[in-house]
Design a protein that fits this description.
Layout (H helix, E strand, L loop, with lengths): L9 E6 L11 E5 L20 H8 L13 H22 L13
Antiparallel strand pairs: 1-2
């Protein structure tokens, strides 16, 4: 009938006799595409209003990668995970959310 991934989206599939006079009957197929439900816009951060002083103060607590020249892959992976967590925590503490509608929000 169709691509396996589209099967759950088939809303209607039927032979139609809309076109008379032919020995071939057309097949009418309707697919459901996307969701019509309204989704709340994702909150966005306003990086222009970052508290720079708080970022500078927090950066003092950033620990360096010990013995970077001889670090193993595991140590580098662990440090990368630490950096991602540190930056995410820093953003949540120092960058406010945008207020009101954005260009991506629904009116």
């Amino acid at each position: 009938m169709c691509t396996a991934g589209l099967t759950p989206r088939v809303a209607k599939c039927a032979v139609t006799d809309a076109f008379c006079g032919s020995d071939h009957l057309p097949i009418e197929t309707e697919f459901t595409i996307g969701s019509t439900a309204y989704k709340e816009p994702k909150l966005r951060r306003n990086f222009h209003k970052t508290n720079s002083e708080a970022v500078a103060d927090s950066a003092k607590w950033l620990r360096p990668l010990a013995v970077a020249e001889q670090a193993t892959r595991q140590q580098i992976d662990t440090y990368a995970d630490y950096l991602v967590g540190f930056i995410q925590a820093l953003i949540s503490q120092t960058v406010p959310y945008k207020q009101g509608r954005t260009q991506y929000s629904k009116p």
